[in-house]
Structures are given as structure tokens and as C-alpha cells.
Amino acid sequence: MTLGIVISNHNMGHKTVECISSVLCSDIDLLQIFVVDMASTDNSVSIIEERFGSQVKLTRCNEDLGSCGGLNIGIQQALDTGCDYICCLGEAVTVEPHALKNMMRFMQANPNVGMAGGKIYHKHMPHYIQQFGISIDFKNFRANTLYADCADSPDIPNIIYCDAVSSCAMLVSADAIAKTGLMPDENFLYWDDTEWGFLMKQAGFEVVSLADAKMYHSASPMRRCDNTKVNYYLTRNCLNFFMKYTHPEKCMKMSIVLLRSIFESFYLHRMGHAHNMAQSDLTAMSDAIYGLRGIAPASRILENDESGLGFVNFFEEHESVYMEEDDPFLEQVIRQINPSIQFLQLPQKNIVTIVRCKSILKIKDFHYKLDFSDEVVYIDKSYRMLATREDARLVKDYDASLQLFLYAMQPAVLRRISETRGIEF
């Protein structure tokens, strides 16, 4: 059985070298590596060629075709050379020596499995899981990254049957691709792997994530993209996916849930004075509704004005804090910002208290009087903070603004579904 490794590179030559080096340390004999460079503007191509030469097949593209476009080129090359399994890897991923063989063995023993992923850890915090499979939630209309930011534990199952796995660490059988086709490419970036997993399951295959396939991803949870690209494609493609596949009886609820999510992101960006990011939320929603797919026009992608410096600066400036509930992962994030910060065991006057919440916009009953908000900060799962009286005022105005937005936008979403799927509401 031959394994083809496919890596799509865009201006990450040194990380791609690390990824390939880890692959070459794997205990697999029949191995071919395909690297597709997406019009890199740095010296990625020369770095890869000088390091590996003929050990990899390197294809240069004159334009950025997105993650799925680049991976599909490599996947087709692997299929054309007779590879039985194809493993897509992200440039920032490194694999342990036995990971790839363990994945192949499992799929060979379970031919009903069409797609498999590994247990991916944060490289800078290797005891914490970054992701271990993806589940598609058609009740809440979202994709959940399983065990994200959880400390590793023997209580976590060794095999997770899920709906999809990330394309940064994905093994797919040639037989499954023959039935489902290549990765859906109309997304350009993001949701392509989730949709492919969904299509695999629709075709009758299982999707799994395996704990004995350990991998490490070097991306930080505080990583910041220079432009609005990530926000745009995640928003557009999520709405497109659920408009495309949600059961007709649930489309009314879906439209409310996803529009509420988009408006929440818009409102948070407004609170943070990230005007380009707020515009990106609305543009992505509009493009999903009006059928724009593939690569977005250049005018859609703006400079990222959400610096995240508020979170960073806040903890750089404090010597001590008190955390209302233990949160080891958040503590590690804060210590990376300020290694000397002290976490107190008991609250103290004039010392900031950290209160965790799911979303700062969903806070209804403040634990503390607003007069003391300068000494209390709420931090939600996306590391957004409510720390001032102005923040609190905007939170109180949120529900009324949301209702106006839903009234204006829901008919457009339902009209798009009617036009593309023939469903009447």
C-alpha cells in the first residue's frame, strides 16, 4: 500500500521543511510527497528544493488557489501515481514517527472508514489538545472542534467517530475519493474539509480520529491574521454550508441561529472598534446569500484592524490577578503574555478578578456592581473581554439591536434557500 503526502504551501517554506522532515522520519516504506506551492512571494520554493531535491514532487502555481485548490492538485497527482491513501498535512504540522502508519493500519483494517485524522496538540503547549475531530451540529448549526484546548487525559477515548477532520492532518482512501470526488473547492478556504467529511458520510463511509496518531500544530491560540481573510471565509462558508444541507423543516431555525451568530461577531467587532472586521462580517453574509463562491474579489479582504492588543496589554500591565474559577489553559495563555504575573488564591481589593463566560454579549446578571467594573473583567471563550462601563452599556443595548437585524435579514436568507433548493416557506 502506497501513501501519498500532500502539502499546500503558501509563504511558509521553513515550516513546510519541518513538516516534510517529520514525515521522512516516519516508519513507512512506500511513501511519496507532493508539495503544491500557492504562488508564494517569499523564498519558499528555493528553501524546499534546496533541502529535499527529488525527494518531493514540487508543483508551482501562478496564483493562490486556496487550501482546497492546492490540496486537490496534490491529491490528483497522488491518485495518478497509484497511491492507495492520501494524507493532507498543513505546513505548520509535524507528525510523530508512528502516526501515519497507525492511521493507515486502522483504515486497512476498517475499509468502511473513508477519512481519518490524528490527535493534534498545541506545539507550544504539548499537553493540551488543539483538535481531535470535528462534529457537525445541525441542532445549533455549527461545527464543533472536539476537545479543543483540553488538557490531555486517559479519560479521552482513543477512537473518536466524528463527522470530519481538519485538512491539516487528514488521511483519505482512494476508494472513498472515487465515490465522493475531490475536496469541494467552491469554499476556497475553510469548511472544505468539513464539507468533504460530510459528503464521505453521506456516501456511507465512517470518519474517525485516532489518539495513536499524534501530531503537533505550531499555530498559537492568540495568532493574528494580518487581514480579514479568515473571518470572511469562515463566515461566508459556514452560512453557505447550512443553507445547502440543512433539512427543510429546520431552515427557519437555522436562519435565525446563524444570523444571530453573524450579528454577534459584528457587534463584538464594533465594540472593539475593529471596523474592517465588522465590515467583513456583513460582506461575508451578503456574499453567501447572493451566491458568491470561490475566491473573493480583492476588495472583500481588508486589513485586520482587530489587533488583540487590548487583551495583551491588559495582562502585560498587571502584576497580580485573581481567577474566579480555575482555568489552566487560560492561565497558560496569560503566562505567555506576562510570565511574571501572579495568580492569587483569594480575591483582594484593587486586584482584578477574572470571570469566565461563554460570550460577553450573553451576560445578563453581572456578579459585581458596574461601579467596580474596572476591577472585574469578563473573558469569554474567544478571549474577548468586558472590562469597562462603556462595554457594559453596549452589552445592555445588544438584544434590541439584534431583533432589528433579524427582521431585516432573515427574508433574504430564506429567499436564497428557496431559489437554490426549491423549498417554499
Q: What's the quick description here?
A:
The chain has 425 residues and is α/β, with parallel strands linked by helices. It contains twelve helices and 17 strands.
Description:
- There is one protein chain.
- The chain has 425 residues and is α/β, with parallel strands linked by helices.
- The protein is 40% helix and 21% strand.
- The chain has helices at 13-24, 44-52, 66-80, 99-109, 174-180, 192-202, 229-245, 251-271, 275-289, 309-316, 328-337, 389-421; strands spanning 3-9, 31-38, 57-61, 85-89, 93-95, 113-122, 129-131, 134-137, 142-145, 159-162, 169-173, 206-217, 320-323, 342-344, 352-356, 376-379, 385-386.
- Strand 1, helix 1 and strand 2 (31-38) form a beta-alpha-beta unit.
- It is globular.
Helix-strand category: alpha/beta
Q: What is the number of helical segments per DSSP (H or I, 4+ residues)?
A: 12
**How far from one another are the termini?**
51 Å
Report the sheet-strand fraction. Answer: 15-25%
Poorly predicted spans: none
Shape type: globular
* β-strand number: 17
* Largest β-sheet summary: 10 strands, mixed
Percent helix among the residues? Answer: 25-40%
Q: What's the alpha carbon Rg, rounded to whole Å?
A: 23 Å
Order of helices and strands: EHEHEHEEHEEEEEEHHEHHHHEHEEEEH
Q: Summarize model confidence as the mean pLDDT.
A: 91
